[in-house]
Amino acid sequence: MKLAFDLVIFGLLARLAHAASLVRLPNQHVLVGELDNGDQPPTKLPHEVRKALKKAEIIPTVMDDFVPTLDLKVKWSHGNKASLGNTLKPKDLQDPPSIRLKDLVASTTCLRRSHTSLVVVITDPDAPSRDDPKWSEFCHWIAVGPLVTADCPISDEQTQIHGCCSSVSLGTLEDIVSYTPPAPPEKTGKHRYVILALAPVNGTSEKLHLSKPKERKRWGYDKPVNGKTHGVREWAVENGLVPFAANFIYAQNKKQ
């Protein structure tokens, strides 16, 4: 069992380090979860997600260049979903969203059962505005939770072929920094709200002991130096985390 678990973690790390080549893991104990039910935005390929992140300047402003290996499904109440740059109203983002992860290339891999916890963050690099990001980045949420399993429908192609599913959910999330909804100030234009999923780079199954930023502005770091802002990138490095999935929305105050 220990060997099988190690192989699972090795597969995850391989996907993080070599995102261009996903790891096939057939005929092993599965990590299953709820599947897409048709009301989520269509899954994009890794290069399409990366292209959207670069076009919005999330790469390299928020994170260094990386190729996402899982599709990050983010859904607020009343059916409001993140879709790589769609615009949502702040009033519709008052509660924490639900998080799901789906394989970007469903036919190539199966998500496995493991005890590794994943971290979800939401950050605003445009605080108080994109033209004057002196508070950037602003931390809106840090939460950690385990991957959870559920029965995989027999109609799922992955179940029929390999006995595994290509989508998982996060379990009950524990807040490191409680969720505060987007509240862009008046006359500051559209803000980018970036949602990232991160994993421990060493693949540990132990409880994660994550540091809590001392304040939300700049994620508790010092003021910008030579225009360089601070945020989730530095925090992730300090906590031994790497990104493997991302999504984002725009939101703005109705008074512009």
TrEMBL record:
<dbReference type="Pfam" id="PF01161">
    <property type="entry name" value="PBP"/>
</dbReference>
<comment type="similarity">
    <text>Belongs to the phosphatidylethanolamine-binding protein family.</text>
</comment>
<dbReference type="InterPro" id="IPR035810">
    <property type="entry name" value="PEBP_euk"/>
</dbReference>
<dbReference type="InterPro" id="IPR008914">
    <property type="entry name" value="PEBP"/>
</dbReference>
<feature type="signal peptide">
    <location>
        <begin position="1"/>
        <end position="19"/>
    </location>
</feature>
<dbReference type="InterPro" id="IPR001858">
    <property type="entry name" value="Phosphatidylethanolamine-bd_CS"/>
</dbReference>
<dbReference type="InterPro" id="IPR036610">
    <property type="entry name" value="PEBP-like_sf"/>
</dbReference>
<keyword id="KW-0732">Signal</keyword>
<protein>
    <submittedName>
        <fullName>Phosphatidylethanolamine-binding protein</fullName>
    </submittedName>
</protein>
